[in-house]
Amino acid sequence: MGESVCKKGGRGGLIDYGKLADKFVKKLKRKHEPDITIIPVPYQDAHDINELQERITDIVEEEKDNGVLLKNIALEISGGTNIAAAAQIFAIYNLGIVPFYVDNKKDDDGEWVRPSKIPTNWGKTLSPAAKQLLIDIANSEFTVKAKDLSETPEGEDPHTVEGQITRHDLINLMQDRIDAVQIGKVARPSSSSLELLERFKLIEILSKYEVYKKKSNVGEPEWELDTDSFKAYKVTESGKIAARRVKINPD
After folding, report:
1. What is the rounded distance in angstroms from the CA atom of residue 171 to the CA atom of residue 176?
2. Looking at the domain 124-248, which fold is it?
């Protein structure tokens, strides 16, 4: 796994995690290469619980793209900061990869490795409709548009927000998907699925969002930012990770 390149204060002063990582990688290479290839994956902040989960998810996605089965991807959780250990456990839990722990002494059978079991993943209780809604919201991109128009007015800032979508645009997205296979059926996002995603803190349900409104209809249109009281949906940091987990392991 990756090691941080940042510096953080500890009891003895600043800790250079980058230097510690380089030293550890050299030790691993001396001991295990050429039998095992060591590939360092750096990340910026050893105290950012979300960033490390993202890096682990990157590795799992890459391995899956190369044909590796999920059951053959393992993560060793000993060592590192407490925050790093917590992030690793969350990644194991959400992605469904295999956890293990290397102890500092052998067990009665002469083994160093201690296998672990993953508790039931909350994501498995989400319905297919809720999972699809989560993915749709996480993959969306919100831009501030003029009221009742589909594009940002010319010359205005779209104020782009990744992972946010209005209810109107979400319905249009779902309708396009339905029309591709069944003409005539009306799309509506499930209220119970949205409430469940909100309860799990995977999305926020917004009661209003920004729009451009005309200040004057005389001459060239002038626009000002305003708010409309219509629903929109925004993915949380936890929701971003969960959406990637659902795509990796939809079952």
Report:
1. 9
2. Arc Repressor Mutant, subunit A (1.10.10)
